Amino acid sequence: MTDTKESTIEIREPPLYAPNEIPAVSKRWIPGNAAKMVSAFISNWTPFGLVASYFIFSTCLYTYCSESLVAIFWFIYMCTNFYIAGATVLEAFMSITPCREARKTVTQAEERGWLFPTAHDQLLVLDLLIVAYLPNEQDIIMDRALYALEQIDYPSDKIRINILYNTPRSIEPLETELHQLPLTYPHARVIKVPKSTSKADNLNYFFALDTGSDLIAIYDCDHYPHPNGPRWAVERFMADQEIDVVQGRCIVFNADENLLTSMIAVEFDKIYAVSHPGRATMWGFGLFCGSNGYWRTSLLRELKMDGDMLTEDIDSALRAFSRGSKTVHDLNVTSYELAPTTFAAFWKQRLRWAQGWAQASLKHLKMVYNKPHDPLHTNYNRNFSARFGVLSLLVIREASYYLVTQYFVLTLSFVLIKFPTSGKELWKFVYFQYPVSQWLFLISIICLVATLWITNQVKSEFISRKMIIIFAIQYPVYLVLMATMGLYGHARQIVKYSSWNPTARS
């Protein structure tokens, strides 16, 4: 651990111009600036044009296809969507075991009077990082920092709460208040990262510091880690020396704010409590998801974060897996976060995720077929299950965006060619255009119901059964929306869109 006197690190930057002090030359029209504006406009709107053209062309194409050809397409889309639904429900059933183990662990701890197996003086040294972009998160950073410093239940001589932030302009008195935290809390460290423009820059700056920690935990600024979350994570490392990463469960706590946040909250419960632990059990590998993740310090400092990736967290997780590192999902390591409250914020967030996943998929697709090699894991070799899991995660998942949207536009073409005159005809056109689709559709519905039933068994305290029912009813619309966002992410990757749009926090 570093000395208390060195716990505040600040590098001053040159003062910024006030709005009325900007040099006159910057206000003049410059041809180069105009060219940049035109280029930015084209970069922003080309993906929209590509996605719109995709939908229009696909719909028109199906209206001109013969009935037999349309039947073939229909069968292909129904079968592939059935596979996706089947894989999802299999992951859900595979998640039952880790859910039971997590509950069993809690019961055992409760029976022991909440005494954890490891003595305080034998615990690993932990650096807990809270990463923030101040203009975007200036309203919440002090609250989250004080919460972490006061509420996390871990020996203060074994943990350091690090507030890493970057800002393009000085924000006072907030910054002064932040840098005064170590005076009250000796286990606090506040770092203003110079020349940083992203989360990756903030993290890589910290990784270059020698803090003497055994583990590093990463949290986005909007998170409230459960007071016992760090202890549960460290106990996993103590119990299994082969574990390199522990990914916890992220829970949305503003679920009741509006319909959008409630749907995102259900989705997060489905992902973090069901899909992630189920996939790890089924395919044999887990993934770091960006926040509420704990790493062995030596591994994280070696891998670092790739600032060229929009989702540097997924990239680092896949790079860790490619070299044989072991990642586990622990449902007791919980953290509470905010969901976007407006559709505009949600749209920006998911487009960044979609493009980031496309980048990561292209970069790491080779794991499906290449031979792993790492000097630290000489005996590691990906088996067929792990390789097929990578194929499902990086290829089939990305391809599903096209399968879902093609099914949608094919159905739309039916409506355009012969518009239904009654509800019965509409039902037949949408779902039972061909007899075999009755069975595929019904089985897919059963898979969805089973997945959400399992989700209901492990839902967080902020989720109601009514929210899950509403989520199930509107799921087809939500599925098409998410697939469209996936296509948009692909289109952005094609035009090499590179703007980093942080999610608005308040």
TrEMBL record:
One GO BP on record is: proteolysis
Task: State one molecular function term (GO).
Answer: aspartic-type endopeptidase activity
Q: Which GO terms describe its cellular component?
A: membrane
* SUPFAM superfamilies membership: Nucleotide-diphospho-sugar transferases
What UniProt keywords apply to this chain's record, in alphabetical order?
Answer: Glycosyltransferase, Membrane, Transferase, Transmembrane, Transmembrane helix
Q: One Pfam family for this entry, by name?
A: Glyco_trans_2_3
Q: Look up the signal peptide feature and give its range.
A: none
CDD domains xrefs: CESA_like
* InterPro entries for this protein: Aspartic_peptidase_AS, Glyco_trans_2-like, Glycosyltr_2/OpgH_subfam, Nucleotide-diphossugar_trans
Q: Which residues cross the membrane?
A: 37-57, 69-94, 401-419, 439-456, 468-491
Which cellular compartments is it found in? Membrane
- Lipid bilayer topology: Multi-pass membrane protein
Which residue intervals define the domain Glycosyltransferase 2-like in the entry? 216-453
Q: Which domain of life is it from?
A: Eukaryota
Supply the Gene3D superfamilies for this chain: Spore Coat Polysaccharide Biosynthesis Protein SpsA, Chain A (3.90.550.10)
The protein's name: Glycosyltransferase family 2 protein
